[in-house]
Amino acid sequence: MRQLLLTDSKLIYSLVQLHPLRGAGPERSGTELPDETGQGRIQLGQLFGASDAFAPWRKSEVVPGPSARTRDDLRAYVRQTAGTYHHQVGTCKMGAESDVDAVVGADLRVRGVEGLRVADASIMPAVPSGNTNAPSIMVGERASDLILGR
Ligand SMILES: Cc1cc2nc3c(=O)[nH]c(=O)nc-3n(C[C@H](O)[C@H](O)[C@H](O)COP(=O)(O)OP(=O)(O)OC[C@H]3O[C@@H](n4cnc5c(N)ncnc54)[C@H](O)[C@@H]3O)c2cc1C
Q1: HSE-up (13 A, CA, CB side) for residue 128
Q2: Are 51 and 45 in contact (CB under 8 A)?
Q3: Do 72 and 139 belong together in one domain?
Q4: Which of 81, 99, 118 is the last residue in one of the domains?
């Protein structure tokens, strides 16, 4: 395994800003991230990569590269390479009775349809500030409690 890592593999850090920017939509560019956000995280990745713990596997830094060490270098790299991605949630969002866009209420029942609940990421009224798998499991757990009357 170690031989395989040394000869064929790359170690990739994926730096993700989890808290969505207010009003951010797919049209917003990653270059609008605050400079410090990306720059600080790249530095952290470079520190990890240069640490003794990675010494047996480390060959050389590919990007941004060993010559990129100043704030300006790192900011330029972030501006060139940053992008956005979105967790698609909320096609069946939960909301108050008065919310005309809300499909389910707090009991996960679909309004206007007898005997139907929705229990998945689609009920999230907004993209959470993090990944969506754990919140989806939480929705499922809550649904089972509701169905069992707990
Ligand atoms: C590439 C990728 C990477 C991800 N990485 C992460 C991560 O690292 N961390 C994280 O927290 N989240 C991650 N997510 C998000 C996470 O997987 C989802 O938020 C989560 O799985 C949503 O759960 P869900 O139950 O709403 O939907 P799903 O998990 O999509 O479940 C829907 C289920 O319904 C089934 N289905 C669809 N139509 C029908 C039908 N007509 N009849 C019967 N069954 C049907 C599907 O087969 C599927 O099993 C990732 C998602 C993707 C796509």
Answers
A1: 13
A2: no
A3: no
A4: 81
